[in-house]
């Protein structure tokens, strides 16, 4: 039983370390063939937005809004998938309650 508790504590410490590392990483999402780029942190905070000036020339605000949303959602998806893969390395695919 003591060995099992020790392994659980080690897994918990590894998970905390990965969570800390992931919160500091940045993930990029794009849309419009790279015309719009959004970067988010592992904590899902938007840290930058880049729009190619050519996109602005069209004057179509709705298309630009859609591109921003798509790029943001893409970045969030990359962050979430990366986090899940890193956690699976620790847990061996075992579901962890409360995790994404």
Q: What's the structural blueprint in terms of helices and strands?
A:
Layout: H1 2-24, E1 26-31, E2 36-41, E3 46-51, H2 53-57, H3 61-91
Antiparallel strand pairs: 1-2, 2-3
What is the structure about, briefly put?
With 100 residues, this protein is an alpha+beta fold.
Task: Throw out a few tags for this protein.
single chain, 100 residues, alpha+beta, Ybab, Chain: A, three-stranded antiparallel beta sheet, 3 helices, 59% helix, rod-shaped
How many whole angstroms does the radius of gyration measure?
A: 18 Å
Spatial strand sequence of the major β-sheet: 1-2-3
CATH architecture of the domain at 24-82: 2-Layer Sandwich
Order of helices and strands: HEEEHH
Report the CATH C-level class of the domain at 24-82: Alpha Beta
Distance between the termini: 29 Å
Proportion of strand residues? 15-25%
Sheet with the most strands? 3 strands, antiparallel
Give the CATH superfamily of the domain at 24-82. Nucleoid-associated protein YbaB-like domain
Tell me, briefly, the overall form: rod-shaped
Tell how many strands the DSSP assignment holds: 3
Mean pLDDT: 87
* Regions with little confidence, pLDDT below 50 for 5+ residues: none
Structural class by helix and strand composition: alpha+beta
CATH topology of the domain at 24-82: Ybab, Chain: A
The helical percent reads 55-70%
